[in-house]
Structures are given as structure tokens and as C-alpha cells.
Amino acid sequence: MRQRLKSLEKGLPFAFCALALTSTAFAVSRHKPASQTPQKTSIQADPREVHLANIKQLTFGGENAEAYFRADGKSLILQSSREGSPCDQEFTMRPDGTGVRRVSNGQGRTTCGWWFPNGKRLLFSSTHEGSPDCPPPADKSQGYVWPVYPTYKIFTAKPDGSDLKVLFPQNLKSGELPGYNAESVVSNDGKKIVFCSDRSGDLDIWSMDADGKNVTQLTKRLGYEGGPWWSPDGKQIAYRAYYPETEKQISDYKSLLAQHLIRPTTLDLFVMNADGTNVRRLTNEAAENIASFAPSWTHDGKSLVFASNRQDPKRRKFEVYKINLDGSGLERITFGEQFDGFPNFSPDGKKFVWASNRNGKDHETNVFIADWKE
């Protein structure tokens, strides 16, 4: 597909796990939580958004996305371009938008924040050990592409950002690049981590123990497999994938990957068992040039919510949808004017958080929360 997603180019430049957030919001301290500037937080839902009630805006200005709940539902970790940093950093905040705190070190670029279920440590990927500077943007001459930075390592830290440690990969030889290691999610029992890596020479899904040991490759088909997410019971993994099939597609994919790039304009959803077996395709829309991504589970483990541009003929506008595990019951959840994505339920299923362009200026993406209505 050569069609460019112009809504993404004009303020929604995706990174693999979240938005490539580049605008500046308001200053907060890494060590001392800071309340946000008072704003009108209540937002009117579109009448068609029948599952969403009491919508509230949690961030104001800049680019903010991928807000995920801690296991107790009392905190969120998110990716944002605050504090004047030109690169994304990781932050935590309360579900009412207060107590904002930077938990990454402010260097390099970070992505894909997550919590360990006991709340004692958090997880994210960062390029800062490769260089404290921002990694270069993707080569626009290649069209609409995502960068796959080969300096991404997976780190853990305490909830205040202290005690930052490399989790994976460890013990690299002098001058050896870690490769792309990101999109990591911890299972609900805290025992396993699933992530995306190019350590096999392709972009595959891997799992490892919570201490970074027993690394196992779960997918081996040529193509990009990423955005993995454990089911609530830890028995299944949902993910997004692009599989080149024609000779031209395969050549294009391999050429871009050699340059640490990927073209994400066609993505489908899949589910597999936790050991990589029994792969099931939920969507099959490559021929329609549809991109479906960011799948996460409903709290009962019976369905997925995800973002897709399936109903926009120009494939520029993303909304949130819900789908059953057999591919049935597709239902549209959001009806924004530009972008809605990165959906996530609270552990009890009563709250729904997502990122959206609604109620903002150009190039702004903010985090919203709502009560979920069945």
C-alpha cells in the first residue's frame, strides 16, 4: 500500500507501541508529583458512544497516549512529550489526572510503559543507553514508515523512577547493539513478560520470565508481529501483524527492516495460545488496506478492543472497536472527529481509558477516561 495516512502525518505519527509524541505539555517533576493546570475536564460524549458515560479529560496539550492501569486501578502509566523534551518519556498519574510524575530519566526515547501487578516496579523500553539524545526520525523519503530503533532495551524501575535497571537484553559485548526490544506487557500473575524483538532477524513476539530469563520465541512467520497483550488468565496473547505475501511486498519489507523501518499501513489482529500455538486470525482485511492495532482485552477475557481505520474510505481516521474472539460481534465504540485509540479497561472493567484528538488543538492527543456501560 502506498497511500499515506495524512491524519497520522499531521499530528499522529505512530511509534510501535504508541504515538511518537513530540509536542510539549506542562512541566512536571520526576521526584515530586504535580497537579495539572485546572481545566474543564468533563467532555460531552457523542450520542452514538453508548458504552461511554461521564467522560473526563485527564491530560491537556501536547501528545499523550497509551495510558494503562496498575493492577489496583489507582494509577496509570502513560507516554508523553512533556517537560520540553522532544522525545517521548514515561509518566504516571492518578486516574483523575492528578499526581503527574515522570518515571523515565528524560534521556533518549521511551515507549511501552507497563506495571508489574504488585505495583512495586514498572516496565518500559528506552534508547537512552545508546545515546542520551533523541534518535533520528524515520526517513520520510520512504513514505509513511515507523522507526525500529536498534537501541531499545527493556528497563524496570521503582514507581518513582528510581533504581532504573536493564531487564533485557543483559550482558552485551562491548559495542554490540541490543536490537529492537519493546512492546512489553507483564502477565497478570507477574510471572511472564511478552514483547516484540528483532533478535531473530525478523520482528517476532517473544516471552521471558519476569527476571529476564528463559527467553522464548513465540512467532516465526516472516513479517511484523507486535503489540502483544496477555489475556486476563494468562493463557492467550492478542497481537497485531503484517505478513508480506507477494514478491514485491517481501522485498519491500526486508529492505525497510534492514534500515530499521517498517511500513504499518496494513495490520490485522490475531490471538494465539501463550506458548505460540493455535494461532487464530480475527480480522482479514489486508486487501482493503485496513490497519487494526493496539488490541487489549475486556476484563472478562471474552473480547478485544482495538483501534482501526476500517470505516474511513481514505484510511486516515481511527476509531475504537470491540470484537469477539471468534471474529464476530464487531462493534464501534468511539465516534471522534480524527483519532481514537489505545483503549484499556480498568482491572474491574468499570472504567475505560483511551487516547483521542477530541477537544484539542491540531497536533494534540490527550488521555480520556469514562465509565463503561454494557
Would you kindly provide a written description of the structure presented here, covering whatever features stand out?
By secondary structure, the protein is mainly beta. It has two helices and 26 strands. The chain has a single domain (6-372), classed as TolB, C-terminal domain (Neuraminidase). It has helices at 6-9, 247-258, and strands spanning 52-57, 64-69, 76-80, 89-93, 101-102, 110-115, 122-126, 146-147, 153-157, 165-168, 181-186, 192-197, 204-209, 216-217, 224-230, 236-242, 261-262, 268-273, 280-281, 292-297, 303-308, 319-324, 331-332, 340-345, 351-356, 366-372. The strands form seven sheets. It has a four-stranded antiparallel β-sheet with strand order 1-26-25-24, with no helix packed on it. A four-stranded antiparallel β-sheet has the order 2-3-4-5, with no helix packed on it. A hairpin with a 6-residue loop joins strand 6 and strand 7 (122-126). The chain starts with 5 loop residues before the first helix and ends with a strand. Mean pLDDT is 88; it is low at 1-15 and 18-38.
